[in-house]
Amino acid sequence: MAVAQKRSIPVWQNYLARRYGLFTIGLIIFSFIIGLLEYAGVLGTRSIGYLFLMLTIGMYALIGIMSRTKHLDEYYVAGRAVPAIANGMATGADWMSAASFISMAGTLWLLGYDGLAYIMGWTGGYVLLALLFAPYIRKFGQYTIPDFVGARYGGNRARVVSSIAAILISFTYVTAQVSGVGIIMSRLVGVDYKIGVVVGLLGVLVCSFLGGMKAVTWTQVAQYIILIIAYLVPVTMLSLALTGSPIPQLSYGRALQNIDRLERELGLQTQYTKPFTTGLSNQSAIDSAKQIGLTPPELKVVNDWKGTPWNFLALLACLMLGTAGLPHILIRFYTVPSVKESRKSVGYALFFIFLLYFTAPAYAAFSRWEILQNVVGQRIDQLPAWTENYARTGLLSINDDPAKGGNGDGILQFNELKIGGDLIVLATPEIAGLPYTVAALVAAGGLAAALSTADGLLVVIASAVAHDIFYKTLRPNASQRTRIAVGKAMILVGASAAALAAMPKLALIAQMVAWAFSLAAASFFPILLLGIFWKRANGAGAIAGMIGGLVVTISYMVGNYFDPAFNILGISHVGAGIFGMPVNFALTIIVSLLTQAPPLEIQRLVDSLRRPDNEPEGHDLRKDTGEAVPAH
Amino acid sequence: MTAYWRSNLRLIAVLLLIWFAVSYLPVPFAEQLNRIVIAGFPLGYYIGAQGALIVYVVLIFYYAWRMNRLDREYGLDDD
């Protein structure tokens, strides 16, 4: 089987490269023609938006329908036939969500150096994934992460605990994506947010419903291509306009210099590249309480730890460890044909993610330069036209009026300007004076980022329920057909639940996504690591560890979220996992040592994980799934 | 098999040490590093925005390459 699969890969890969190559060229030509038609005055903004929307969603639907399947192996792990490079692209799209695409550059704009924790954290985690998890997960070779936890820690109790954790983490995440889809849809074609959510939901379903992981994988490859082109085009043109260089990633050094100069000229306190300038506050608790309709708590700000690196370091560690422990990324490494491919695949994944992440700081720097140069310090009635458009959407507000806290001198001071984090990427085409086609392309890219992540997460939710809870725990005799039917039903249920949860558009949801990393770092990371690298770890230890880690993390999170005075070394609630993670390690180790060593077959399982080939003595890990081997 | 596993662990340890050094060590010194400016980039900022990321990509590909060679040495690849 293994040999036959390997031989077929080069042919398969060539065929794919040609298809996706043509797709990329097609997309560029399509955008170009639309741009020309816009220039000629044939197309208005609304129809450009609809054309991009129809083209991209139609493309995803086509791939989804072509990949429909009745095989469990294809439905859950894409038949384990995804070449390393394609899996890398799919992982990239799976990973980069609406937040990466739209909000990351804005976060950097607002936080300066402090925002870099996200850039390093969300890429550095892949090193842990590559070295510590991916090859072993692939060798294990079943369907879900709870599969792994259940097999390694002997039994359904550990499996169910980890299924619930996987569902919780993925559900908050997918809700944030669906809400991102709503925002982008309303921008792209001007529909109401709620209609955007529903249409976006259908976009998610066309890929994942019929074809499961197989369809999701191949759609994600297309979505990666769209999102990366959409991300790189506007900033490249802005860089050309401002510095004459077509490589923004190298030329934004000049932007940084100009920011520094302008900040000094304007006498600003904030220094963009100066580290650790953010204090602790309960602002986000206040915002969330207001939205839900509760009486908000009083504003508390703690600046005691400003200027120290502790919060940054804690956040960095949580983001990295959390990245390596997120189920929807880990399962992508089940889909490659071999251990060897899985190692390479993480490299490709990070490379494709890197292309976007090392561009985000350039976005932030160029727009900050532009805004400090041409917006701040100008007369209010002479501001560039794009500021007015965005003031209308609420992403930007100008508060010179004394009633709004300004000094009313008719000139815009820096502290009179408020900018929403989502503005930076969305407004770049206008700032650079580019045609609307580019703005529509950016919106289509953001949509691709949100949809691809939502798809991957829905597969995790559906498989946790249909595979781990329904099949493995409740009905071990269920037929293949029933299992696929339950899987499809769960995708529908998960998507509808996410859409319902996204309807009120709460800020709390975005906050919960940030927490998901701390939770994953404090629950999955330690027990996966010990499960592979320490044979003595047993089920009792893992359960104690997961629960202890989560309790400590959640307690610190809640305490600090409402009262910033409750803190250790000035670490904020987003970095709370730094306390739960060592507790998890300690409890797993101590409880494991106090209880019996895991049985011999589990120790043998660990041994087999550690060797990349198929064992001679025939300890077959896949024996209990009883799946038909896919035909190709 | 144990020799293979030990080589793997040693490789992981070395690479993780490099990973730790580029991710965490520059952070407490970011302010001092920022005084060094190369092509407009303050060094402390640059490490976080690009430098560390480049190292991560290289580390992963190096590990894949090195492990595939190790697999062959120990006759553990499937071909």
Name the features.
heterodimer; A: 632 residues; mainly alpha; two-stranded antiparallel ribbon; disordered N terminus; disordered C terminus; B: 79 residues; 3 helices; 5% strand; elongated
Structure characterization notes:
The complex is a heterodimer of chains A (632) and B (79). Chain A is mainly α and 632 residues long. Chain A is built from 23 helices and 4 strands. In chain A, helix 6 runs antiparallel to helix 14 and helix 9 (193-243) crosses helix 19 (480-502). Chain B has 79 residues and is mostly helical. Classes of the chains: A mainly alpha (632), B mainly alpha (79). The interface between A and B is large, with 54 and 45 residues.
Task: Describe the secondary-structure layout.
The complex is a heterodimer of chains A (632) and B (79).
Chain A: H1 2-39, H2 45-66, H3 72-77, H4 84-95, H5 98-111, H6 116-140, H7 145-152, H8 156-189, H9 193-243, H10 248-265, E1 280-281, H11 283-292, E2 301-302, H12 310-324, H13 327-330, H14 339-357, H15 360-374, H16 385-393, E3 396-398, E4 417-419, H17 423-431, H18 436-474, H19 480-502, H20 507-533, H21 539-562, H22 577-594, H23 600-610
Antiparallel strand pairs in A: 1-2, 3-4
Helix pairs in contact in A: 1-9, 1-18, 2-9, 2-18, 4-9, 4-14, 4-18, 5-15, 5-17, 5-18, 6-12, 6-14, 7-8, 8-9, 8-18, 8-19, 8-20, 9-10, 9-17, 9-18, 9-19, 10-15, 12-20, 15-17, 17-18, 18-19, 20-21, 20-22, 21-22
Chain B: H1 2-23, H2 30-33, E1 37-38, E2 41-42, H3 43-73
Antiparallel strand pairs in B: 1-2
